[in-house]
Design goal:
GO molecular function: DNA binding
Structural class: alpha+beta
Radius of gyration: 20 Å
CATH class of the largest domain: Mainly Beta
Protein name: AbrB family transcriptional regulator
Number of helices: 2
InterPro entries: B_subtilis_Trans_State_Reg (IPR052731), SpoVT-AbrB_dom (IPR007159), SpoVT-AbrB_sf (IPR037914)
Keywords: DNA-binding
Organism: Paenibacillus contaminans
Helix content: 10-25%
């Protein structure tokens, strides 16, 4: 992890302002969802990327019946053809 050399105080509501230079560098815009992860004694912020509800993959995820499903799992969800049932 590379230190950014920026120190910010947490306000009374627990908020931290990310410097504009960091938001610009990492293409973070107002309203973008951010995921907060904890790894050991580190708090990590990442741009939120939906994960497949079945396998946890973040690759080729789309919405299927209001759930996030990857392409591989979506293929498995397709109904069997009538020949497969014989």
């Amino acid at each position: 992890m590379k230190p950014a050399g920026v120190v910010r105080k947490v306000d009374q509501l627990g908020r931290i302002v990310l410097p504009k230079s960091l938001r610009k560098r990492y293409q973070m815009n107002e309203g973008d969802p951010v995921e907060i992860l904890v790894q050991g004694d580190h708090i990590i912020l990442e741009r939120y990327r939906p994960r497949c509800v079945f396998c946890g993959s973040m690759e080729q995820v789309s919405d299927f019946r209001e759930k996030h499903v990857c392409a591989a799992c979506l293929t498995e969800l397709k109904p069997q053809t009538s020949q497969d049932n014989m």
